[in-house]
Design brief:
Blueprint: H1 7-23, H2 35-42, H3 53-64, H4 86-98, H5 109-126, E1 133-137, H6 140-158, H7 163-166, E2 175-178, H8 184-192, E3 199-200, H9 211-218, E4 225-230, H10 242-251, E5 255-259, E6 284-288, E7 300-304, H11 307-314, H12 343-377, E8 383-384, E9 392-396, H13 400-413, E10 419-423, E11 426-432, H14 440-461
Parallel strand pairs: 2-3, 2-4, 4-5, 5-6
Antiparallel strand pairs: 1-7, 6-7, 8-9, 9-11, 10-11
Length: 467
């Protein structure tokens, strides 16, 4: 390869990257070109001849930019999506350049070393059991699935069945239980693990699992069981009563998994740790550094207290792979053999922030959520529907149609972006505070944008006077 083969094309990519990042804070958030328009700009036909790489990247960045949404904006509140710390982004660039297949410690000791440190730091930071197995996967859904596969093997082995050897056909039925507010990520992970839909056992008004309902459901049978709890309800941000629910589940011999896609990070904050009290007694946990920790995508994290159970479910063995030693291999903890070194941006972010920085990040997100809630509650015609204990704020007007119109108007105005949803049979607008840049200024701008949008949709809903 020529020595300068990458020089021009990376320079073009860097220029467009800087331009994009410089525009994030002030640009209108929503995309202003649709899929078909972007296809037209890119060119729909594959040419017979190739094109210079630098020209390709310049064309790509220019054509796609109108169809991009500013998800990294400090006023983007949709889908529980964080921004990206500079150290995380730079580390992610290096991961792509280094091009290491981080399946084994032997051929890629550098990448494995960084990931093992990141894993140990995470377990310590969150106060989870030392020696837990940690797998870096694509996102929260795959983290949930990885943990459920470890759980499946463990509870079936206890029932006398080796699912890793004999499969699910003929195995004892595994009961899969969750609260009524179980997240769709947990539901699909259960389907992929072969459990079907979870049996829901009730929840309170904020989405916290009904512990008495859980005890009653577990008491109906003594077969293998897995209980899914959650740290951070997607609408209210509420946390299950982990101490009580885990005690009930373990008394029945069940495995307890906690879906903490964004809420698990409360364990890193001394001022918020009460929200996850008792969660360290669970058997597995899932989270996504892309959310609360503000690491780029592809940063799901599966954590299993019994590392051997994780390896039994997920490990890959073949004659051409390095012999398994006394230390677990990266491919013992993920459902993949070939993958990028996902843990490196996590390490870089933790190293750049330190313990205090992570706690400040989480505390700042919660403070901004409370600031939004206070502003919305003081707005005539808006109602905050949830107890704001973490980073979620749900609001509604007195009328579903008006609430949905408000969500549309806010997004169309471009200052802020929030997700419409339904909760307790009402249309709502959900604000998920996940971006490190959402400060007091962003909060004030968002409140102003919502108030302006509300006035606009109310005016539009008033019939014009007749003469």
């Amino acid at each position: 390869m020529p020595d300068d083969e990458y020089s021009d094309v990376l320079s073009v990519a860097e220029r467009h990257t800087h331009d994009w990042l410089a525009s994030i804070a002030e640009r209108p958030i929503d995309a202003h070109a649709g899929v078909e328009e972007v296809k037209d700009a890119l060119g729909r036909e594959l040419a017979d001849e190739g094109q210079d790489a630098a020209a390709v990247i310049d064309h790509l960045a220019t054509a796609i930019e109108p169809g991009l949404i500013a998800m990294a904006s400090p006023r983007f509140y949709g889908f529980v999506i964080g921004g990206t710390y500079p150290a995380a982004l730079a580390a992610d660039w290096l991961v792509s350049a280094w091009d290491q297949n981080t399946g084994s410690r032997t051929p890629t000791p550098g990448a494995a070393a960084v990931e093992e440190l990141a894993a140990a730091w995470l377990v310590d930071l969150l106060g989870l059991p030392e020696g837990s197995g940690v797998g870096f996967v694509t996102g929260a859904t795959m983290a949930n699935l990885s943990c459920l596969l470890a759980a499946r093997g463990s509870v079936l082995r206890a029932a006398g069945w080796d699912v890793e050897q004999d499969g699910l056909q003929g195995a004892p039925r595994v009961r899969f239980l969750a609260g009524d507010a179980v997240h769709s990520s947990m539901v699909v992970a259960g389907r992929m693990a072969g459990f079907g839909l979870p049996r829901t056992v009730g929840a309170d008004a904020q989405g916290r699992i009904d512990v008495d309902g859980l005890a009653a459901a577990l008491g109906e049978d003594d077969g293998p069981a897995i209980v899914a709890l959650q740290a951070g309800d997607v609408h209210s941000g509420a946390f299950d009563d982990f101490t009580a629910a885990i005690a009930v589940a373990h008394a029945a011999g069940a495995w307890v998994h906690i879906d903490g896609a964004f809420g698990l990070w409360a364990g890193a904050s001394p001022s918020l740790r009460h929200l996850v009290a008792g969660y360290e007694a669970a058997d597995s946990w899932a989270t996504d550094a892309h959310k609360t920790l503000n690491v780029p995508y592809d940063s799901g994290i599966a954590i299993v207290a019994d590392e051997a159970a994780m390896a039994a479910a997920l490990a890959i063995h073949a004659a051409y792979l390095p012999e398994v030693g006394t230390v677990a291999e990266p491919y013992d903890h993920t459902p993949e053999l070939s993958r990028r070194a996902r843990g490196i941006p996590v390490w870089a972010t933790l190293r750049a922030l330190g313990r205090r920085g992570v706690a400040d990040l989480v505390d700042g997100l919660v403070a901004s959520a409370r600031g939004l809630a206070d502003g919305f509650a003081a707005t005539p015609g808006l109602e905050v529907l949830n107890d704001v204990v973490f980073t979620q704020v749900c609001v509604a007007t007195e009328d579903d149609a008006l609430t949905l119109a408000l969500a549309d108007r806010v997004r169309a105005d471009g200052v802020a972006w929030a997700s419409p949803s339904r909760w307790h049979d009402r249309a709502i607008v959900r604000f998920s505070v996940s971006n490190r840049g959402t400060d007091a200024t962003a909060v004030d701008q968002t409140i102003g944008a919502v108030r302006s949008a509300l006035a606009e949709v109310r005016d539009a809903a008033v019939p014009a006077p007749t003469e």
